[in-house]
Structure formats: structure tokens, C-alpha cells
Design goal:
Chain lengths: 158, 170
Amino acid sequence: MKRSLREFLATRAENLAFIHLTRRNDLVVNRVASPDAGVDFLVTVTRDGVPTGRMFGVQVRAREGSVARAADLEAFIEPVQAGSVADATIPFCVFVFTMSDDRGYFRWLKEPAVGARRKPVLRAASGIGWSDLDRDALDRIVDAVDSWYEAQQHPQAA
Amino acid sequence: MRTDSGDHDLVAARGEALFCVLISREHPTRGFLFDIPRHLGEKKRSVDYFVEVLESGDLLSYFFVQVKTTRRGYTRDGRRLKVRVSRSDIERLASYPAPAYVVGIDEVAERGYIVSVGSGTGGAFSSICTDYPLIPEILATLRDEVEAYWRSKDRSVFRSELADPRWREE
């Protein structure tokens, strides 16, 4: 039985997400089996091959066509809501892949940040726009995740 | 997707994901040509994937693929990807009553190349030609020849434009 177009595009996008995430060999990328879980991948950062427990979630979306630049996604897709991960206690981002050119874009849904006195903050990032998803962007995502967990483990004394 | 069982499994998992993405790319004028490949599951068989042509009317058109993923790169002249294909794999692939192909995936550069396997293909091979990259133009050729095979009244012979010239010589 043939897949629906929606399923076809979703599967392509998941494969593209996996390809992007595994460009770093220090990430363990686990696909979440339930499509209704609000998360498609749980990614764990490893150190010297050992999982650190530092995890972040990824939602994956596919869209037909292409866009000239990342900012154009705002008009191209329906608004992405952080509702499905509103109560998440780990960093979360969403990846979108445009199917005509297989380009990837990302934005945070729950953005990890380090506030005053090295306090780890998880921001509902509703007002933050899209960026190109490339190797540099992936590095920035992992660096932000790492810093956030680091601040949890080693907060500055009050 | 296998993910956390060491380098070898990671390379294989990336190769599978790359193959699925590259073979299902959108052609600029003809749209999507092939469905997402269906993995046939069993390890150590000659055929890894069943690939169905999309939007082929009342015709069920498909082909079989063995995927070989490598990090070893190319031959010195840069014209062949270093993947090994055994004689038994070739013989078994050629015995299927359907078009059959080998796809070599350069896991580092994230590129793939396809070559056909037919009754005239002989021997074992340590590399495949890079004349047929998995780009939309080649995918259109692939689709046309697979459809032509299934529309043919005589399916005893499969002729492909995507044959590796060295495989034919040996």
C-alpha cells in the first residue's frame, strides 16, 4: 500500500533530520516511536563515547516547495506553537525541511539559556525566528544545551 | 534507525537515511518519482530495499536495491567509489525477476551513485563508477527505464542506461 503524501514527506524529513544530527559523532539520536508524543527525536550528548544525560528534543516538520531564506518560513508554514512541549523540562527545537531543495531550518521551542548568577533558564521561544540548519547551527544548538546543563550542575553561589 | 551501537552501525544507519532521501528527491519538472524505499529487513541478504515508482497509473513498477555505504572515498583517479560488491550478491541480485541496482553511498560527502545489475554483470567488484549520481536527472532516467521494463511484453531481458562500464567488461 502506498503512503499518503503527508506520510511520504514526514518520512523524508525524519531521514533528513537524522542525517543532520548524526553529522556530529558525539550525539546519540533516538527516534521516538509514537507520532503523537510531540517529539520526534530525543538526542543525548556523549562525552568520550559515554552518554552524559544531557538531552534535548527535536520536532521535525516537512513542507513542500522551498523558501529563499529562513525568515520566509514565517509566512510559509503555519505558526509553530510550543504548546505540545509547554511543560517540557529539557531544551526543545523544531526542524523544518523544504522538500524541493532538502534544505533545513530550525528554531527553538524551549530555548536553553544561562541567566544571571549562572541560573539555567528554559525560555518559551515564541518570538524567535528561523535559522538555517547546517553544521554550524548544530554546533550552536549543542553548545547551548551543554552550557545550560553545565549551569544546572555548577550554579554560582548566591 | 539504528543509532547507538558504535561507528559501523552509525555509518550504516546514515547510509540508509541518505539513500532514502536521495532516491526520493523531487525532480524540478516531474515531481517526486519514487516512494520512500522499503527496507526488506533481513540481514545479510543480497537485496536491501524494494523501491516503488510513484504515480505510475495502473502499472506497478518497482526495483530492488542493495546499498553499500563507505567512508573509504574514491579511487585515485576520483572516478570510482570504493565499495565492495561480492560475486554472490551480484548473482543473486541479477536473478530477481525485476530491475536490480547497487547503490554506493559516500557517507562523508553525503552523495550516492547507482549502477544496474544484469545477467551480463560478472565477478566481484571493489568499486563502482560515479557516472550516475543520485540527482534528479539520473532519477528520471532510472524511472523511465524501470517503467519501460514493466510495460514491456518481454521481460526476459532488462536493458539499463545505468550500467557500470567496467562491470560489463569484466
